[in-house]
UniProtKB/TrEMBL annotation:
Residues 26-71 are annotated as: Disordered. Pfam families: SH3_4 (PF06347). Residues 1-21 form the signal peptide. This is Aspartyl-trna synthetase. Keywords: Signal. InterPro entries: DUF1058. Gene3D superfamilies: SH3 Domains (2.30.30.40). It comes from Pararhodobacter marinus.
Length: 203
């Protein structure tokens, strides 16, 4: 009995009680597990590259569905009396009457035998093609415009033209037109006339 008691006392002194073991085991089980999982690798950038912007083609110049000629374009009145109607037929009412031969007009539309035209003031209508001519003319829009002997601003004046004069075109470069008015010929600045598309050159 004395030996058993001595062994029990020795066990208490060494801290080997059943309660102490249970407590240590409980603390060990409650401790968080070490974070040993590797950091996840970043997801690869698999987003597709943006598609290149489509190349925009330059717009093709407009052409008339009947003649296949450019639209707009300039022509002139062929007769001394031309009716401009509200629509492309003789049943449409007449809105304007052009009573000036060789007057330049701008063709902006086509339908069968009819052409939609406008004058220097933006007025007009549908005119039968037989009343129009391909002869190119210009309308003087600035009063006392100088007609010169050469296409230079310092060249001698041949004549002075009043606003409203119609002249036939002989040739045009980007800055000047050589014209004829009742047999008188000379060069006039393009800024003084109407009847040409911007940058249009005529030989």
């Amino acid at each position: 009995m004395r030996n058993v008691f001595a062994i029990a006392v020795l066990g208490v002194l060494l801290g080997a009680s059943p309660l102490g073991a249970a407590k240590a085991q409980s603390q060990a089980s409650a401790a968080p597990a070490p974070d040993t999982a590797p950091d996840p690798a970043p997801a690869p950038d698999t987003a597709p590259a943006p598609a290149p912007a489509p190349v925009q083609s330059q717009p093709m110049p407009s052409t008339g569905p009947v003649t296949n000629l450019p639209l707009p374009r300039f022509v002139s009145i062929k007769t001394s009396r031309a009716f401009a109607r509200r629509g492309p037929s003789e049943t449409h009412r007449v809105d304007w009457i052009y009573e000036r031969r060789d007057l330049p007009v701008r063709v902006t539309g086509e339908f069968e035998h009819w052409r939609r035209v406008e004058d220097s003031e933006g007025e007009g209508g549908w005119v039968h093609y037989s009343l129009l001519s391909g002869v190119r003319t210009v309308l003087v829009v600035n009063d006392m415009a100088a007609l010169r002997s050469r296409p230079r601003p310092e060249a001698p004046q041949v004549a002075y033209l009043e606003a409203g004069v119609v002249a036939r075109i002989m040739e045009c470069d980007p800055g000047w037109c050589r014209v004829s008015i009742d047999g008188t010929r000379g060069w006039i600045s393009r800024g003084d006339v109407w009847g040409l598309e911007p940058g249009e050159v005529l030989d």
